Amino acid sequence: MSITYLEAIREAQAKALADDPRVFIYGQDVGSFGGAFKATKNLAQEFPGRVLDAPISEDAMVGSAVGAALQGMRPIIEMQFADFSTVGFNQIVNQAATMYWRTQVPCPVTIRLPFGGLSGGGPFHSQCMEAIYAHYPGLVVMTPATVEDAYSMLIEAVAIDDPVIFCEHKYLYNHLKAEGLPTEAMPAGKARISRAGRDLTIVAYSAMVHEALAVAEELAGEGTEVEVVDLRTVKPLDTDTIMASVARTGRLLCVGEAWPWGGVTAEVVARVASEGFGLLDAPPMRLNAKDTPVPYHPNLWAAHRPTARAIAAAARNLLRL
Amino acid sequence: MVPTIESAAPVEKLSRLREEALRAYRWMLLARFADEKLASLFRGAKIVGGVFLGKGQEALSVALGQSLRRGDVFAPLIRDGAGRLAFGEPLLDGLRTYMGSSLGPMRGRDANVHRGRPKEGLLPMISHLGAMISVVNGVLMARRFQGARNCAGGACVGDGATSTGAFHEALNQAAVEKLPLVVVVANNQFAYSTPTSKQFACQHLVDKAEGYGVAGHVLDGADLLECLAVVGGAVEDARAGRGPQLVVGSLLRLCGHSEADTAGYVSASLRTSPLGRDCLRVAEASLTGRGWLDEASIEAWRRELHQTVEDAVDQVRREPPPDPYREEWTALSTERLREGPPSPAS
Fold this sequence. Notes:
The complex is a heterodimer of chains A (321) and B (346). Chain A has 321 residues and is of the alpha/beta class. Chain A has twelve helices and 14 strands.
């Protein structure tokens, strides 16, 4: 039986609801409608009273999740699109993220952000928010790239005592399939070597992992071995796995779908440059989207974000240095 | 119509009202002495950061804090020293937080009015106005999930906070979910220096209640007995399942926004208007006028509570400040997900 990334997210929530009476889901259209992307399909029927439709009030959704968490619940908040989490930004970064540090009372809130580009999404339905949340102390930021991780990491997110920003990629929702749900899980906070290689390390996360794997396959045909590191969790960042990979290859290219200023790729390059300078045979490089809002038209959109072709070109340049 | 004490209440009810009013007055007095001491410490540079007093707002504040009970949830704002004490916050919590004692609930990590004890239903406010109301909603939603009955939640805001999106979202959310929420708005005529004419254009803030589909109440914020009756009634209505309640009290803040603010923007005519009455003096006149309290008792209480504050401050003064070398320096509770030091150089 094959299962999609989206179905895995639905199944993870079903398991969390079934296993733990403290879990509930709150978000716009998540109830009998099953969510804008159907990530909560039939959950309101299967778990009556525990999957609640929210008014279009992202601030209040997150604020009330914090209150419920303080009172011993484990809320899952679905943002209809990651972009709309900016309306709840204050509650996420100032309320949820500071609560444990200020009071020593944990705040186990999971906030699901359907993020990243689909052709035609445009400026307000395509954004990548992981870097801005990772910037704030007190948040865990997950970016699963596989069906198995989407399932196991969401279950783990709900179980973690801290607020988790769960970035689920909209392109992967229906494009990515696996044979079934995983029986074993790799813990959050650990990066994975998705493909081993000795010539070049490409660090990526979420949908860009699959672009990087396509590039690795392409370059293998040219006799180059690319190692692909899937960060899985961008905060905490698994610096050890990145550094060990760069120690093997001597070359680093970090790829992100997000904007270029600051962010995850900049953090990876900064850490490798400052802590692993001696491991490098060439300058560490990174590739991101262009520094504009995300364009609507497919022609512009495809050129705005890194593609396998752009990544391959960057990798070849780096291998020549 | 505002209920009055004189409306031929039976003897036992009058006795309960008397007991409630006297208890509330004592909390007001204690809060006022604590405020005056904090102002004095601030002027003597003994407090780092801002000092925000509740002068003139004690009656409204205490009415909510006292109407709530154990098992309820309370989100005070910056002028709610009296309400906090009445709800059960130890006097030491406020003094320790202001004076930076490591033994306070915030352990030097957060300051002044940003204190709380979430496990005891007292929420620690963030600075962003209106943001605590939805947190109260969440606690109440959780209580409903957990099968709790007869609980209520209270949140205090000022007139300024009613202009925020967070206030709107939260009140609407509470109405949709039919939560036992009481929002008390202290309309103290200014948000920092901005007068209400630049804050809202409706006739009266309570008009908003109808728009949200919640019950609305108005009161004279300088009148303790009216505050106790109206706020107490609103809390009981919420507890009884009659949905969210919006209470708007009119009063004047009898101090600056902070102790660094001389409040020159408050006109002399406003200060001498009925809005500018000091709720503490009004309460004393009202309680002595009814024969519930005499001047000698007031004087004895003043001496006692003044000394209580002095003793508490002396104790806090001797307590250790936080130590940066012993500080944990992590914002996550999950040890395995904490990031290590960023680089060997640090």
